Amino acid sequence: MADSPPRVERPLSPHLQIYRPLFTMMMSIVHRITGVGLYFGTILLVWWLLATATSRGAYDTFMWVAGSPIGLLVLFGFTWALLHHALGGIRHFMWDFIYGFGPKERVLLAKATLAGSVVLTVLLWIVGLALKG
């Protein structure tokens, strides 16, 4: 063993110095982030349900917070996260049936997920605000 060549020091696992960020990689990360965001957004849903079930004052407090500019921004982000995560889930469901694994198909599905979530979020909010009056 004394005559073996010196060992080359390499990282134990791939990292960002080896991989350049690809669009599909970023969309995978965003899918995970939206999943975490939905977890915390569910707390808002529970707050709304509890406020509705308890008293008029609790409901008014929730509506005041949700109707504030920051509350509307959080609700808009929650809507986008929900739709983005759902469309990403459909993309993964398609992959379960061995469809869309080609390089062009993967990028197209990732772009469609992002564009679809933005368009659906804006449309949903336009319809919601129009119905609200």
Automatic annotation (TrEMBL):
CDD domains: SQR_TypeC_SdhC. One of its GO terms (molecular function) is electron transfer activity. GO terms for biological process: tricarboxylic acid cycle. It is found in: Membrane. Keywords: Heme, Iron, Membrane, Metal-binding, Transmembrane, Transmembrane helix. Heme binds at H85. One of its GO terms (cellular component) is membrane. Part of an enzyme complex containing four subunits: a flavoprotein, an iron-sulfur protein, plus two membrane-anchoring proteins, SdhC and SdhD. The complex can form homotrimers. This is Succinate dehydrogenase cytochrome b556 subunit. It comes from Xanthobacter tagetidis. The lineage of its organism: Bacteria, Pseudomonadati, Pseudomonadota, Alphaproteobacteria, Hyphomicrobiales.
